[in-house]
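Operator note (shift B, R.M.): manual run for MerR family transcriptional regulator requested after the automated queue skipped it. Running by hand, logging everything below so the morning shift can see what happened. Input copied straight from the record, untouched. If output looks odd, do not overwrite the archive copy; leave it for review.
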Amino acid sequence: MADADAAENTEQREYRMEELAKLAGITVRTLRFYRERKLIPPPRRAGRIAWYDDHHLARLRTISALLERGHTLNGIAELAEAFDNGRDVADLLGLGAPTEETPVRLTPEELADRFGPDATPENLAASMDLGYLGTDGEQIVHISRSLLDASAALVQEGIPLSAVLAAGRQVRDHADALAEIFTTVILTHAPQADPARLRPLAQRVVEAELSLALDRQLNRRSTS
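Run finished. Output pasted below as returned.
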C-alpha cells in the first residue's frame, strides 16, 4: 500500500508558483507573463493559493525548448492553442490501434525539430483534421511512423508541409476507394479466406501499380 500511495502522490504532485518557477528554470515574473499570455493553462485555486501540477511544468519546459529553437512567443501561443484544442488520441485511434502502422509519441519540441518553421498552428490543425495527429496529455501522437517519416523527408526536400498534407488528403480518398475494391473482391470471391493473409497481396498490387503509374507520369512530364 505504501508504494501505491507514493505513486499516487507522485502523479498528483502540485507546486506553488515559486516552486514551479524554480523547477522550470524561470523567474516568477516570467511565469506570470506566460500565464497572462495563456501559454499555460490556469492553475487550480484553493482559496488564495494557486496550485500548479506536472502538466504546467512540462508545458513550461516545452516553451523554453521552443524558444531555444528560435520560435517566437506569438508562434508558441498559437501552437499551444492548437494543441489544447486538438483531438484526443482516443478519437485519433477510433476503434483501435492501426493493425500494421506504428503510432509515434512526440513532444511539441520534437515535432518542431522535425518540421521547423512548417510546424505552424494551421498545419497542426490540418494534421489533426486529417487524422494524422492527436494529443495525449502533454504529448502529441502521430498515427503512423511511416507517414511521419515520409512527411518530414518531403519537407526537408523543400516541399511545404501544407502541400504534403493536401496531397495526403487526396491520397486518402483514393486509398479508401482502393481498399473498398479489394475488400469487395475478397468478400465476394473468397469469403472464407483469412483477410489478414490476403491483405499483403492487395498491398503488393497497389504498390506495383503505383510504381508503374509514377514511371508513366514522370516520363510524360519529362518529354512534354
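Quick read of the result: The mean pLDDT is 85. The longest strand covers residues 49-53.
Leaving this for review. - R.M.
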